[in-house]
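ESCALATION

Customer reports they have been waiting on this structure for their group meeting. Please prioritize. Original submission:
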Amino acid sequence: MKKHLGRLRGALFVLALPCAIALAEGGPPVAPVRDQVDTWHGVQVHDPYRYMENLADPQVKSWVEAQGAYSRGLLDRIEGRAELEKRLAEIEASLGDRRFGITRMPGGAVFYLLRERKGKQVKLAMRASLGGAEKVLVDPDTYAQKTGVPHAINWFSPSWDGRYVAYGLSAGGSEDASMYILDVATGRQVGEPVPRVQWEAVSWTPDSRSVAYNQLRKLTAEDPATETYLDTTVYLLKVGDPAQQARPVFGPLVNRDLGLERLDNGYLVFTPGSPWVIAGTNDTTQKEGSVFMARVADLAAGGTVPWRRIASFADHLVEMELQGDTLYYRTKVDAPRFRIMKLDLRHPDLKTARVVALPPADGLIEGFVLGRDSLLAQVRRGASIGLTRYAGGNTAGQAIRLPFAGAASLAEDAAHAHADYVYALAGWTEPSRSFVLKGAHSVPLPQFDTSVKLAMPAIVVRDVLARSYDGTMVPLTILHRKGLALDGTNPTLLVGYGSYGTSETAGFRAGSIPWLEAGGVVAVANVRGGGVYGDAWRMAGTKLNKPNTWKDAIACGQYLVEKGYASPKTLAIMSGSAGGVFAGRAITEAPQLFAAAVIHVGMLDAIRAEDTANGITNISEFGSVKDAAGFKGLLEMSTYHQIKDGTPYPAVMFVHGLNDPRVDPWNSFKTAARMQAASSSGKPILLRIDAQAGHGIGSTPAQRRSVDADQQSFLLWQMGKRKLMQ
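Update from on-call: job pushed to the front of the queue and completed.
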């Protein structure tokens, strides 16, 4: 799921270990039932734990605290759990420092995020050139030391001349970022922080003197949560001026004549050398929206900006780059696997746009970066992503040979000033490495990578297709140790997602190494609702088509059992966020197939989601309870409402941070309580919570290691590979 909701702050809910063990031995605390019945389109819907949505209720807080203590008491007693966390730390240290999110500026400077081997949090860093010395600009740990609360950098945006960098900083995993502006040369903050600038819709005017940003409205205590993302405004602020002097330039409350919806979140696109500024919108979930244009000179003149519409949602401009008088954009119109077009803004009629890049017959265009002389596109084939260069009017492009098989991610060339391209490449068994593409040759950038000293077993990677209930073949990638016996005894973890068109992608997952070392199997499914085969694959897993997502998951689980990788005693499923539907509905529809499940920050009560801050932004993905068809789809995908009394459910661990801005933590509270009351299997249903975490974004390495150790220990215990120590 996406974005923000109010959070509950406070100390981490813990009890002394002896008390925790006593609770664990006595079973989890029982939640009282206070059933509330709603009628939707003639259907009665029971909600026995509705009261848990009030996180300030002392009884709810007490129950959550006791649940946390119960879970902690059990998890800490699983054989080998402490050693597993230690191994995870060793693996992380062996990978060294990691650099990602690279942005290149016109003068050659590069800005990026840095996760140091021994660092507590990701830092913002830069180099004056690709080969220059590294300079750390922002270390969030300095804020954590002052407040005792973890802080994280959510986004960053350098000015074109490299003099300033704007960045978003939030606390406790909340993602509730404020915008700071840093003078790069002096390291000093310029002006005061600007609150409620939560996402990276931040850009600089071509002269680098002003920054444009999207700011949420300041709500009152009486405003419902559903108002959070409505009527946002894009402001223009001159560097050094107080935030109160920022000028509103775009948004539903600013441009009432443009026909904008209340959920239209705006952003501006500038590029040095272009006389134009582009204004785009989205609903924070769908990538596309309305697109407008104006002259930079008109924006700078003050007063009302004469925006001109050039595209609507139906035109599906999902990615845009501006160069001179030309707007480049990626679209799915007449191209379900996407194509790239260019439009002359001096004659801004989409009917006159020309094709720049077409996908190959066996792939889809997932993204692109515009350089000085050509365009480089990321082309997906299954879980792999390659690179294809488009230049000189060749719309078929020229595929680039990469150093090894995997998935490439392109660094941003902010002003399209460079003839070469920087990219990172990672594979299922290859840690990420950085390269600069010069012509057709990839030259390593060792200054961005640390030599990896990681001993790990030989891993087999297989791409297969699993037949789903309706005959659809679902891509599944399977990883395991070389020489593994396919006798059904291997601990096997099925992971997937299946929402927003997000695909599972080849990448090095350090947290999976201990699992593979122990003889485990990891299976990664690209189910419907994701985007592995383009827009049609995504739409086949949305709204009333959503059952395809979890039925594909079940089919992948059945494939793993049929082929001898696992048995129902050794098969687990895991996902999170919107993937709570993938995992939650798989275990409620086919509980006999799985030994255990882990669901992170999962969307589990789809009926109530619409009444939350972030729920309203997801109507375009999942539907609305306000219409009969939408309600039917949401009820079917709601794990909480599909739990049935007396069913032998697998063991489940629900993981949630109390500051989650995307999926309210009561999704896990209510579903854990309901499943504890309903399950007849006698297997544990745990609720693992962290009061200094949110959706996972911004969590420290220590927090991530703790979660990884807990989930793997829990799954191995439930598969009979570990035991509970006294």
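Sent to customer with the following note: Confidence is low (pLDDT under 50) at residues 1-24.
Escalation resolved.
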